[in-house]
Structures are given as C-alpha cells and as structure tokens.
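Late entry, written up from scratch paper. The run itself happened at the end of the previous shift, but nothing got recorded in the book at the time, so transcribing now.
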Amino acid sequence: MNEELIYATLGEEGFNQLTSKFYEKMRGDNLVGPMYPKNDWEGSEERLRDFLLFRFGADQRYLVKRGHPRLRGRHMPFKIGIAERNRWIQLMGEAADEVIIDCSIRAEVMDFFAQVADFMRNQPESPCDHA
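Output as recorded:
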C-alpha cells in the first residue's frame, strides 16, 4: 500500500469528508451504530479522522491526544463478529464511493479497512455466519 500517494490524493480534506460521510451513515445504522456513544458522535468522528491522518499522513494529532492506537483493546468492550465487520465495511465503502474518485486509491483504502475490520473481530465465527 502506498500511504504517501493515498494521502497526497485525499489530503486532510478528503479524510475529513470520508469520516463525515461515514458517520452520517453510522448514526442511522441499527447494527453497529449503537456501539458508538450517543453523546460523543463528534468525538468518535474526530478520533477516526485523526487515526486515518496518522496512518496515512504521519500526522501526530492522534498520538498526542490518545497515545498508541491500541485499536483491538479499545474495541474489546463491543461484540464484533462477522455481521458487525461486514456492516462497518459496507458503510465505509458507501462513504468511500461518495468521496474517493480514483478507483485504485479507493481499492487500497478499502483493503486497509477490511484488514482493520478483520483485526477488530472478537467474536468466534458461527455456522450461521455462512448462511
């Protein structure tokens, strides 16, 4: 993955738009939306945006405010299985469709999100997940 090219293409404004569109969709979602604190939507959006700026642009805001990402540990309180993973990726994909014009950049960003979403899973796969 070429983080520098992704950041050069999207820039801070692109990541702002991506997280904004994603959270618009998340607020109305009945599966993964309830995992987010109702009284801190703006904070959740800011944390994701800052994380993405750190990951793709080496921006230090996230580290200064939150320290090491510790993504899996921070998400352990939530039950994240296949359905939750898939919905998160679906909503992020819809947001990316609205914001990321370059198909190759979109594919790289979505590959990254798929890896992160898989890493966040903390519920075992069940036979019903294949139905």
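The CA atoms of residues 10 and 29 lie 26 Å apart.
(Scratch paper discarded after transcription.)
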